[in-house]
């Protein structure tokens, strides 16, 4: 998946290097490789010695079979989109994660270097034109992902959550797209200060408990307007988000989604009239939720159950609507998140069905692959989520 020169580059950068799964852990490794496309970056063949121990590798990875579908990039009239919550190191490396959330995962497989090697190999093998990532540590973006994906022709943009060290990243293929403009927001700030959301803000003021919760959240929305390098008349609005996580936070997620869609409408209807929208992310919402229904159908009623998701005290009834015709490009998989205590579909790539259609959805790993090591993350999968991948074409 990584291509020629990948292992050499990793070793030269002082990262852990994988050997086959039956290798001796702790062995130091000398290797001689001929770089492929990276020759201009890494120079002629040479011997390198890894600066750290060589871990036993993951063996067969959950994404190996997916790479069989994504070996080649899409043609000019199509684009391959990926949405993936990659599990922030700031959450993976806590005592709580090791003992409560992911007790089934080998401790070394939760370490950043190990997971980063897997992630870079996985993402490189997807040959994507557009990648929307959630839970991206600031340092991981700057020091690891951006340089690695740059070598594969992808430009990266980052939006941090204000109270955390992680955020959102959007990557786009440079030979297919150029960046026209960025319109990122923090939901809480936009709700309070942008006239776009005044009506919603006024409605929310009637429910002070909910209002306080919404304003406490650090969730953000990343919006990028891209232009085709082949056909400059073709532009696209790419939105990326990660909504509030709490199981009883359906009402909060509805408000966040309303802010997101109003903002996207401003960009894709007012600033750039009638450009198609792709809305990716971890919505922390199953297909039976109000949030999914709202995005998918264009509205949500004021008596929807999710308005009382955290009990009567935090009830906040209001009808919401948006003008887009959006479709979940990868459908409604049985799950995109699989941990010990939960599995469900939380991640989506919503597309503007007036302008885009799905050419193919890359199959998710089989249930057997996902559960080989009980649940996710594991030695063969770097996150507790699974990447969604689809090929889209303009209508």
Automatic annotation (TrEMBL):
Keywords (alphabetical) are: Exonuclease, Hydrolase, Magnesium, Metal-binding, Mitochondrion, mRNA processing, Nuclease, Phosphoprotein, Transit peptide
Look up and give the organism this protein is from.
Anhinga rufa
> Per its record, what are the GO molecular function terms?
metal ion binding; poly(A)-specific ribonuclease activity
The protein in question is named: 2',5'-phosphodiesterase 12
Q: State the superkingdom.
A: Eukaryota
- Where does the record place it? Mitochondrion matrix
Q: Where is the Endonuclease/exonuclease/phosphatase domain?
A: 83-385
Pinpoint the 2',5'-phosphodiesterase 12-like N-terminal domain residues: 5-55
Q: Which GO terms describe its cellular component?
A: mitochondrial matrix
Xref: Pfam families: Exo_endo_phos (PF03372), PDE12-like_N (PF21171)
Phylogenetic lineage: Eukaryota, Metazoa, Chordata, Craniata, Vertebrata
